[in-house]
Amino acid sequence: MVVLWHSIIFVAPPALVGFFPALAGILKAQSKEAKAEALEQVKAVLELLEEALKDCGKGGAFCGGERIGYVDIAFGSYGGWVSVVESMGEVKLLDEERSLGLVGWAERFCSHEAVKDVMPEMEKLIKFANK
Question: Which Pfam family is one of those matched by this entry (predicted)?
């Protein structure tokens, strides 16, 4: 439990602060160099999240074990936007080679009974992003 709280309080928030702007930066980039820089920022955060998932989940299906918790919901709120950036930016952010744990976690999270009916459709997010 101490590792979980450490990850929530000290690791996740600083990493996530720059995550959404970096995601948006992939789409807003005016040059290949700017896009590559934003992509590297996102991948660095995803690597931190992959490690935090290993530490916190302790082999369970979700961040805190076998049940969805606060951290899963916080991280899960970014899932749709990651898919939007992958689609619109023509990049691959989550892949089984670099982030196997996150890929599996995302699939379990998005298909969970408590989540699947409330996750926004990617088409709606893309429409919103294009405004």
Answer: GST_C
Token reading at 66 = 């076998």
For tokens 């088409």, what's the residue? Answer: 123
Answer for the pair 28, 88: CB distance below 8 angstroms, yes or no: no
Cβ-contact 89, 35 below 8 angstroms: yes
Number of folded domains that form the chain: 1
The CATH number of whichever domain residue 29 belongs to comes to 1.20.1050.10
Q: What is the pLDDT of residues 4-35, one digit of tens each?
A: 444 444 555 555 677 888 899 999 999 999 99
Q: pLDDT tens digits for 30-83? A: 999 999 999 999 998 888 888 888 877 778 898 878 889 888 888 888 889 999
What's this model's pTM, rounded to 2 decimal places? 0.79
CA distances from residue 98 to 50, 76, 116 in whole angstroms, order as listed: 9, 19, 25
Domain that holds residue 91: 2-129
